[in-house]
Amino acid sequence: MLVYIREAHPDSVLFIPESGKEVLKKITQTDSLDHRVENAEICLTALKLSVPTVIDREDNKANLAYAGWPDRMFVVGVDGRIAYRGGPGPGGFRPQEVDEWLKTNLGERKLGERTTPRLPK
Known about the structure:
By secondary structure, this protein is α+β, with helices and mostly antiparallel strands. The chain has helices spanning 33-47, 61-66, 95-106; strands at 2-4, 12-18, 21-27, 53-55, 74-76, 82-85. The two termini are 24 Å apart.
């Protein structure tokens, strides 16, 4: 699951697929929940992610509780144990690495399909 919080780097410019071509788009700081939803959709599209996503509300509770943690990407097994831990962020934010881990450990499955991961010993 991706937790989308307020912009850590507002006014960043990214290439975003739009109308069949790549365009530069400025990602501004959010001022409403609707704006955060728009930015989250841009993020998912730009990073080519298709994971369940939740949006932190304007009160920034998720951001305040977790943003300072250096680890960014985790896979949690059905037993509640951490099965994969990414490197410190933002350099450790590597969706392709997580995708490869999932393919290796879970095989090819549809997103959201329930399965029990093989946890490392």
